[in-house]
Amino acid sequence: MTLSPRTFLVHGLVAGLVGGILAFAVAHTWGEPPVEQAISVEEHGTVHSHGGESVATHGGGDEGGGITRGQQSGPGLATGILLLGVALGGVAGLGSAFAVGRLGRLTPGATAALVSGLAFIALGLVPFLKYPPNPPAVGSGDTIGERTADYFTLVAVSVVAMILAAVIASALRRRGVAASLGAAAVFYAVVIGVAYAVLPAVDEVPDTFPADTLYDFRIASLLTQGALWLGIGATLAFLVGRAWTKVVAETARKDLAASL
Amino acid sequence: MSQTVATPEVQVPSIPVRELAPWALLLALLAVIVTYFVGAEQGATSVFAGTNIHEWVHDGRHLLGFPCH
């Protein structure tokens, strides 16, 4: 008996939902106030005006195609975070299914927690440090194309580098934990360092934009992503760990029955 | 040894890549589509006209760290 891909997938999706709910609570509580402040800065015209037709209006029902601020900060926020949460939870589940049994002696639960933690670094923390997210009223509509391309390039490089780092660690595991983890960490750090140096910098925060609002927004954004991955990791580790405990017990019972 | 009972040290089995590949493909597709619609649609590029999707997921897009206008 063993754990099936389905076990990981289903538990991953559930974990994604839990992580999404947690992240929504964090985003709604700590993220919305700076977003509101930024929108008020934007509307009072103290900062630059938007250019380009693809730019959001944020102004509420009068010009936002009928979508109000209340909808954006409640159901709209929930939609985006829960959808992404479930999708990323599924990815974490399958990533754990790949990793389980391939990372030394880690139990399935510990593997799931590790994979979720590494996913937070690769998808959340590393892109955040190079391209910190901006609230409304920061960022020029004219450069959204380049900024989107650069951001997703960094995310892609980071994910591929993290997967390769795991492969390196797995391949070198006979040389000891320190050597294999050290080599993997150095590899990942070097790749990210090169990507940071090569990808263009973004410097679009208007001089007049309130620094506190920007800081609060970015911290809230990091906390939102942290909450998402914490929720995914903890839930997935718990569910997969429980499934594995059952497998172990079942195996022990069969061994006992066979020995009688 | 602190182990009193002979708990069988069950070797954690790995799942063959062949078994995981179809699921991985499905999940990768799902993740890319969701990421696109939550993170980028009606920003840098548009599949659907208008700005309703962008507006609806607007706050999530900002707070999840995606570039937004």
Please tag this protein with its features.
heterodimer; A: 260 residues; mainly alpha; flat; B: 69 residues; 3 helices; elongated; disordered N terminus
What would a concise description of this structure say?
With 260 residues, chain A is mainly α. Chain A has helices at residues 5-43, 69-99, 108-130, 144-171, 177-198, 211-259.
Model description:
The complex is a heterodimer of chains A (260) and B (69). With 260 residues, chain A is an all-alpha fold. Chain A has helices spanning 5-43, 69-99, 108-130, 144-171, 177-198, 211-259. The two termini of chain A are 20 Å apart. With 69 residues, chain B is mainly α. Chain B has a domain at 17-63. In chain B, 49% of the residues lie in helices and 0% in strands. Chain B starts with 16 loop residues before the first helix and ends in a 6-residue tail after the last helix. The interface between A and B is large, with 77 and 47 residues.
- As a percent range, the share of helical residues of chain A equals over 70%
Mean pLDDT of chain A: 90
Kindly report how far apart the N and C termini of chain A lie: 20 Å
| Biggest sheet descriptor of chain A | none
Give helix and strand order of chain B, one letter per element, not per position: HHH
Please estimate the helix content of chain B.
40-55%
State the helix count of chain A.
6
Basic shape of chain B: elongated
Estimate the global geometry of chain A from the Cα principal axes. flat
User: If interface size is counted as residues with C-beta under 8 Å from the partner's C-beta, which chains form the largest one?
Assistant: A-B, 77 and 47 residues
**Average pLDDT reading of chain B:** 85
Q: Please tally the β strands of chain B and state the result.
A: 0
